[in-house]
Sequence to fold (392 residues):
Amino acid sequence: MKLLKSVQALVVVVVSVSAVAATSEGSARLDVYDWATANGANTSKVVLKDDGEAGSILHAREDIEQGEVILSLPANLLFPTRVSEHSPVAHMIENTTIGRITAICLYLISERADRSSHWETWLRSLPPHFYHALSYSEEDMAHFQASSFKELRDRKKKNVRKEYEQTVAPLLHKLPAFDPLLAAVDQENNVTREAFSYEAFEWAYSVVTTRGIFPGLLGEEEREGDVPLLVLGPLADSFIHGAAAVKIAYDANEHRCIFTALHKIAKNSAISIGVGMSSNMELLANRGFMMQNNVNNFVLMKFQLDKDSDMHASARESMMKQLNLSNPMTYVVRYGEMPQGLLASLRIQSLSPVEFASFAKALASPVTLENEWRAYRLLISSCNTILNLYPT
Fold:
């Protein structure tokens, strides 16, 4: 039966901080705490602890009451408010329409290649590899064979590659090529076009998407006033992503990004920041993790009449057209919800010939008790078939 062709199995996996590999950068991450504090971060309420595979994350140093400031960061710790005087990026993007995220990626690459960068301590602490949609192997993707996530991942990889080839690559002629003689006398400041490889761009893109906070995607209670479109930098990237416990605001007078507690946070607890309305498919694609009991999760279900083995398929399609139902049609199914169009389509697919005359009921109510039973049995059978496609 050509029904329900794609479903995301996006449940399981506990909340995790930005999807990074377990690396040996633990000590470097802890150095960031001291460096950020020395550069004006108010860290009196938090400590940075190595949490194994989750990386170094912020924990409450003491009980934090609702409304108390958890952490505040001066503007000079929000990337890329300060860039090296040797950075070529401003020259590269001059008179272009390059997007904000791509520009930030270029600044990340440039600052990473410049050993005199203000951000050197933070950049050194970041993992060299990230595990999310761009880096999953074909073996990993075999576990998604019954899911639309595979299509999403392939599309994402193509889009990132396209952005590099059509937007970044044409700018590289503005940079000098690597010169070993110049590099020998000016190692720190010799940022050349070779630094801006596709691999470096993918790394920078991963930093932004897995470690950045996008306040505009958060709920209204999680942000206050005018906040930056992207909050990225040391310590700001060390919250757990999951249930919202933090509100973000930006004090334009003090030039500080301020994080306050939405509710009481117990001493030694990891501190989490929300992920907005993101579904597990979006989280997995962009950040490399999923949330258990994500209320914004959904599955995609594709309905299509079985024209090969159903002699009444043409009649059923005519009924669907009269009810303004499309065939085929992909529906977004959220937790606790059943799209009326999907249910009506299932009812029409399940009509027996003697029930055809009552098809108009399908959109608003059960046609008959027997038809409703058949419709739900069809749904359950199709879901079980899809689940059986998974190798685990």
